[in-house]
Amino acid sequence: MRLVQRQSPSPLHYATAFLGSLATVILIVFALTGDLAVTARALATVDAGYLFRVFVVIGVVSLSGVVSYRAGLWNIGQEGQAIVGALAAISADNAAGAVMSAALAAAGWTLIPVALRVALGVNEAVTTFLMSLAAVSAARYFVEGPLKDPAKKGFIATVEAPYMEPVLAAVLLAGVLAGVVLLYRTRVGLTMRLLSSGEEVVRYAGKQPKLYIAATLGLSGILAGIGGAVEIMTRDAGRYMTLQQVSTGFGLYGISAAWLGGLHPLGATAASLYIAWLYQVAVNLKVAGLPALVANALVGTAMAWGLAGYVMYKYKVVWR
Amino acid sequence: MEPLLSAVGIRKVFPGVVALDGVSFDVRRGEVHGLLGENGAGKSTLIAILYGVYMPDGGEIYINGRRTLIKSPRHAAGLGISVISQHFALVDTLTVEENLKLSGIDVETAVKIGRELGVEIPLDKYVGELAVGEKQRVEIVKALARNSEILLMDEPTALLSPKEVKALLSIVRRLAEMGKAVVFVTHKIREAVEAADRITVLRRGRRVGTYERPFDEGVLLEAMFQGVVQRRVSKSSSIGDVIYRAEDLSGERVRRATVEVRRGELVAVLGVAGNGQEELMALLSGFKKPRGGRLIINGEDVTGRPFSEFLRRGVAYLPEDRGRALAKELSVLDNFKIRCIQDCMEKLAKAKEVLDIDFPSPFTRAAALSGGNQQKLLLARELWLVKPYVLVASYPTRGLDVDTAERFYALVKSAVKGGAVVSMEDVEEAVERADRIYVISRGEIAASFTPPFDVDEIAEAMTT
Predict the structure, then answer these.
(1) Which stretch of B279-293, B301-315, B392-406 has the lowest confidence by average pLDDT?
(2) In the predicted structure, residue A160 carries a pLDDT above the cut 50
């Protein structure tokens, strides 16, 4: 068996991946519940407000993935960047300030993998992943230290982040989405995408590859950071971070949506809605008494299907 | 003596070109048989067929007198055939000993063979630290340890220093003394004369003749370049001042190269692949920064400036490796936009028509285009669209059909405002097209020629 590049790839292969993912999810849910009625309830019960909130967060983070992977750069540290963004939001006074702070903090946080990649050629997949682990430790320090809420007696948690109206969050997602779509119509966006064909092509285009690597990874980090800020600010209640609840998993969900959406801004946004629904299904299963980690398992299968879609889009399998 | 390997009437056709046209060739046990010819003569294709990389379209191969169909390189290895080429099957980050083990070769046997051959095997050294000649010796020992009886050496001296060449030639003779049949592919007459017992000359896919000792170098030279005559072709009528000059330019392989281009001139850099011309082109275009020397455009020193500065001054670079210049994962339109600023869709449509580029839609991935169409797309963007002042092109007509190659030269004439420097492999093409010819050998400019060109002199410069 070998893979041969397709002459003319069709986006329909992503639809196949989507259907494959959907079938897998239905099978998993049925296997876990063992009951058709419970399965149907778990799949069909939707809290629109909750679904919308999760969709917006995953949507923003997925665009972070699109920006990075379309340029052939492997930022897999969205989880850490989202944590840093959330911390920055907690320390802000209002929603607008929180978004700005989150962007700045995530940019600063991403600067380390950027510098290592640009100056020393260290693979960004390794550094961004490790920075995610570092982000968890850093967040715990802030929860116990500088951002601790003294009013919450006997309960270690940060002060509350400012509230962001879901409508505002939706406007933000629309803005980010439009921004990325427009970016890809500019020369800067074209050069970012050229990176996926190698640094030499960028140099051939008369641009400096290192500058564009830094800008792309930086932008990817910023979007993940904003995603983290939006996540904590759009909660109905409990807009704080505790020692146990630092990481939310939305980084992974965003990456999954980016791949399932064919690394296209619009595709990733559509896939974010699907991933958000999976998250809702997982919550429904949790309510029905199944383990909370089912959410990660469901999203994990979606990610696998997303990657399979990417492979099917680019290659055909030849069985000889 | 009966030949160990013989090929009879081998024919191989690639789209648009007959690479081998009924070539017969044989090699005996204990013999070094030189296979001589300039680029495009069909030497490497013949070697690829004998090693099972390509299946011939016609003809027969006999090993030890038995008709054999060589199906794959693995099959060829099983038949006792090995290839020693410029590309080594060695892992740089492992030691020689580890590499031998990786290839399933008994280290003691390898050392013993090395001793018989008069070669020391540096077992503890990492392959990455070895000189090219040393790597080649490891490959030869590997081939012998696999009990190979027939060694096909494809341009084995191309990357070697003169001292290493001498050492290799004596190893080649030693291999013959050990009873091996050696096919020694080269374009250098002197090396063939020194190493070979017999020499077969190929020219444009055909066998010109097989020659026995004592060799007459003049006869061999004539056989290699027979039929190359200078046809009357239109040369630039108005050659002007020097607009572009490289002085003592040095890189990793290129050493102290001085090249100049005058207004209206087409300069050819002629040489055999692997002699540093690709690096020279990259240095001349400003794409690669030189280690030494100067680059002057219109009297201004631009040495070491970024490539963007060269682009700004109207330098266009067509690299040998199209992957450097085309983002194959992106669409044809995106690739066009690398140089196009506005009305790109319309301009691309026009270029498609003018240059006859075949692509179904501007949104087709560049990777889906054939090699020839990718080259045309590149020409459309870098020449037709940009209209450069100076063109630096590396083998721009390689793989193109005659009509497209003709179109390339017409485009150079109409679009390039200053002058062009183009690397070529074919003497005839250079003689026909160029206003000045530089011959590059082992990274150095070995000679330069201006019209009227003497083909014999150029050929001699290339083959010594």
Answers:
(1) B392-406
(2) yes
Nearest-Cα residue of chain A relative to residue B309: A206
Q: Among A225, A220, A231, which residue's Cα sits nearest to residue A279?
A: A231
Asked if A137 is an interface residue toward chain B (Cβ–Cβ < 8 A), one would say no
- B68-to-A147, B6, B31 alpha-carbon distances in Å: 80, 10, 21
- Distance of alpha carbon B411 from alpha carbon A284, whole angstroms: 67
- Check if A266 contacts B (Cβ < 8 Å): no
Q: Report the interhelical angle of A12-33 vs A294-314 (nearest 10°).
A: 150
Confidence of residue A320 (pLDDT cuts 50, 70, 90): low
Neighbours of A246 (CB within 10 A): 20
The pLDDT, as a whole number, for residue B402 is 64
Q: Which residue of A has its CA nearest to B328?
A: A197
Characterize B191-221 residue by residue with b for buried, 16 or more Cβ atoms within 10 angstroms of its Cβ, and e for exposed: bbbbbbbbbbbbbbbebbeebeeebeeeebb
If pLDDT is split at 50, 70 and 90, which confidence band does B94 have? very high
B248 C-beta neighbours (distance < 10 Å), count: 12
| % of chain B surpassing 70 pLDDT | 94
Of B317, B323, B330, the CB nearest to A193: B330
Question: B319: which chain A residues are within 8 Å (Cβ-Cβ)?
Answer: 204
Secondary structure in 3-state letters for A231-300: HHHCCCCCCCCECCCCCCCHHHHHHHHHHHCCCCHHHHHHHHHHHHHHHHHHHHHHHCCCCCCHHHHHHH
- Note the pLDDT of residue B230: 46
Contact yes or no for A204 and B317 at CB 8 A:
yes
Shortest CA gap A212–chain B (Å):
15
B360 inside 8 A of chain A by CB: yes
Contact assignment for B311 to A206 by CB distance below 8 Å: yes
Q: What is the pLDDT of residues B3-33, one digit of tens each?
A: 999 999 999 987 667 889 999 999 999 999 9
A190 with B337: Cβ contact below 8 A: yes
Using CA coordinates, name the residue in chain A closest to B324.
Answer: A201
| Chain B, nearest residue to A200 by Cα | B324
pLDDT (average), residues B244-268: 93
Q: Which CA distances in Å does B157 have to A199, B164, B238, B320?
A: 32, 8, 41, 22
Distance CA A141, CA A149 (A): 13
Specify the pLDDT at position B236: 55
Contact list, A8 vs chain B (CB under 8 Å): 360, 364-365, 368
pLDDT at B370 over 80: no
Looking at the partner chain, which of A7, A194, A203 has a beta carbon nearest the beta carbon of B327?
A: A194
> Does the distance separating the beta carbons of A9 and B287 come in below 8 Å?
no
What domain range includes position A176?
A: 2-318
Q: What count of CB pairs under 8 Å joins A to B? A: 52
Closest Cβ–Cβ partner in A5, A9, A204 for B324: A204
How sure is the predictor about B235, in pLDDT bands with cuts at 50, 70 and 90? low
Whether residue A70 lies within 8 A of chain B, CB to CB, comes out as no
SS (H, E, C) B95-161: EHHHHHHHCCCCHHHHHHHHHHHCCCCCCCCEHHHCCHHHHHHHHHHHHHHCCCCEEEEECCCCCCC
> How many angstroms away from the CA of B352 is the closest CA of chain A?
19
Mean pLDDT of A151-166: 88
Taking the C-alpha atoms of residue B285 and residue A204, their distance in angstroms, rounded to an integer, is 11
Residue B339 is predicted with a pLDDT of 94
Number of domains in chain A: 1
Chain A, residues 8-37, CB within 8 A of chain B, namely 8-9
How close A5 comes to chain B (CA, Å)? 9
CATH number at residue A65: 1.10.3470
Say what the pLDDT of residue A15 is: 84
